[in-house]
Amino acid sequence: MHAPAEPEFLACRIDGYTELPPGKLANLVTYLEMTRPPPPRAPARPDLTLVETTRDPDAYRALYRRIGARWLWMGRLALSDAALARTLAGPRLVSRTLVRAGEAIGLMEVAFGEDGEAELAYFGLVPEAIGGGSGRWLMDAALAQAFARPIARLTVHTCTFDHPDAVAFYVRSGFRPYKRAIEIHDDPRLAGYYPRETAAERWPVIQPAT
Ligand SMILES: CC(C)(COP(=O)(O)OP(=O)(O)OC[C@H]1O[C@@H](n2cnc3c(N)ncnc32)[C@H](O)[C@@H]1OP(=O)(O)O)[C@@H](O)C(=O)NCCC(=O)NCCS
Q1: Nearest CA to ligand 1 atom 27
Q2: Which of 58, 59, 122, 174 has the most crowded Cβ, counting Cβ within 10 A?
Q3: pTM for this model (two decimals)
Q4: What's the chain's average pLDDT?
Q5: What is the arithmetic mean of pLDDT over 170-177?
Q6: What is the dihedral of CA 130, 133, 139, 141, to 10 degrees?
Q7: Between 3.40.630.30, 3.40.640.10, 3.30.43.10, 3.30.497.10, what CATH number should domain 24-186 receive?
Q8: Which strands, in side-by-side order, build the sheet including 93-100?
Q9: Is 147 close to ligand 1, i.e. is its CB under 6 Å away?
Q10: Parallel/antiparallel/unpaired status of strands 117-125 and 153-159
C-alpha cells in the first residue's frame, strides 16, 4: 500500500512578494457570512425559473464550465463521474439551475453542514446573463433555499479569479466579510480542465520551464 503523498509547503512572506512555483496560481479569497436573510430585493421576473440541477455528470460539467470557465472554476471538475454524482445526490446539497427562455443561465448551490451552518458553495451566471438583474433574482432564491432550513449562519467565499464585483454584490446581498485567505493551486488549464486560452486575457498561462 502506498503512503499518502506528503503535502508540499511553500514559505510565504507575511510582507512582500512570494514567488509561485511554475504551474501554480494564487488567489486572494474573501469569506463572508450572514446570520439572518434580508428581505428579498429583486423585482418579479416571470421570465426566470429555478429547476433542479441535472445530476448527469457530463451535463452538469457543461453548465459548470459555461458559467465558470471565465473565472477558472475547477472544484467540481476534479471529481470523477461517481464522486460528482454522489455529491449532487447528497441530501445536504441543494443545487438549482436558473432557466430563462428554456436555457440554463445560472447555477446556485447551498451545502448544508452538520453544525447548523450552510455554505453558498456555487453561485454564478453564464457570461451573457451577467448584468441584467438575474443575479439579484437568483440571490433572493438562494437565500430562500438556505434559510428554509433552520441554519444559524450562511457563509460564502469568493476569490480574485471571480467577477470583480462579486464581493460588492455579496455585501449588497447582506453578507459581511469576516476573513481572507491566500489559496495556491494548480492552474486548471495546465491540468487539462480548460483550454489554455481560457481567461488568458486576465490570467495568461505561464508555461513552466522544461
Ligand atoms: C456575481 C454575479 C452573480 C452577479 O450577477 P449580476 O448579473 O452582476 O447581478 P445583477 O445584474 O442581477 O445585479 C446587480 C445590480 O444591478 C441591478 N440590475 C442590473 N440590471 C438590472 C435590470 N435589468 N433590472 C433590474 N435590476 C437590474 C440589480 O438589481 C442589482 O442591484 P442591487 O445589487 O442593488 O440589488 C455575476 O457577476 C456572476 O455570475 N459572476 C460570475 C461568477 C461569480 O463571480 N460568482 C460569484 C463568486 S463565486
Answers
A1: 133
A2: 122
A3: 0.93
A4: 94
A5: 98
A6: -120
A7: 3.40.630.30
A8: 48-52, 93-100, 103-112, 117-125, 153-159, 24-34, 176-186
A9: no
A10: parallel
